[in-house]
Amino acid sequence: MSLRVIHLLDDGRLEGGGRRALAALQAVSSLCPELLGVVMAPPGAVHEAARALGFRSVVLGSRPQMVAALLRELWRDRHSAVLANGAQHSLWAAALRALLRGRGAQWHVVQDGSDGPGGLGAARLLARLGLRFVAPSTFVRRRLEAQGVPWERVEVIADFLPAAPVAERELFTGAGLRRVVMLTALEHADRVDLLLDALERQGALRGLRFDIYGEGAEAVALRERAQRHPNVNFHGARGDAAQALAQADLLLHTGPRDGAGRRVLQAFAAGVPVLVPNSGAAGDMVVPGRNGWHFTANDAAALSLRLQQLMGATAGEFNAMAEGGRRTLRRELNAQRQGARWAALLGARPKATQPAPLLAAASDTGAAG
């Protein structure tokens, strides 16, 4: 018996919620061949990518169009499962399902733990209406609980990589940290300014090279400030960010409230050690001394000290952290494990045979998503 899953998106771009939606549908379909996936979103690249993966897509131009299209889809199969990452989408889906007496599962998918429409902004209202939530990390689950969402109404399904990395780093053979890469949005919440604070505190860090990939509202201000630091290079959201990561000694992540930790996953897959704050999803994913290192969140002095310590680390220490990251992916944060959780959530019955290898849904740039 087939299972139809309708995934409503409030953005048609192939990043953030769109990328995660396709990865989830792809992971479930690799385990459950009977899955019929339907992606409904505003115009954007997500539609072409969805069709390339064998899913139907419906382009939404306005709220009335969204309501009419959703009504048609639910009328076609009232037992369809519904996922939505926008509050309005979740509310309309709940209303139409109640009208049609639909029996399929419905979940509100929290993208990253931000306070926007795809995050925590309407969590309290949705919880009062009895909706259930999917969070990308325990960190976001805790934030939902702080908004009044009962703990037991939130399912945590971690982000994962639907394909092998574009490039992997070779084993470390020499001691010491030399090249650091950041894959990040240049927004206030991502705290790239902490790096510049650390450089201004400690002159010894001038011997390190920092390559930063990404764009955002703070790009101009950060670039101007970085003119005093010739060892800091801003590259924008370029397509060669994955290759640059594979040539680095360390991925530095500074955002203290990151909800999914995708860039950490990329570093794990590429065999690159990571340094992250001791908060957010990244802080939960990294166990110091096992698969990376922590520094105290929002503390430039702590970041500076940790970077200085890593300048004296041995090749063996770097290789151990890189292998620890790969082990975390293999054992905990792989597509098959997370796909099985999505399948159980949606009421699918995974096939008993070995799942087929997953294909890439999209390539990444330096921008966070």
UniProtKB/TrEMBL annotation:
GO terms for molecular function: glycosyltransferase activity. Gene3D superfamilies: Glycogen Phosphorylase B. The keyword Transferase applies. SUPFAM superfamilies: UDP-Glycosyltransferase/glycogen phosphorylase (SSF53756). Keywords: Glycosyltransferase, Transferase. It comes from the Bacteria. It holds the Pfam family Glyco_trans_1_4. Its EC number is 2.4.-.-. Belongs to the glycosyltransferase group 1 family. Glycosyltransferase 4 subfamily. This is Glycosyltransferase family 4 protein. It comes from Azohydromonas lata.
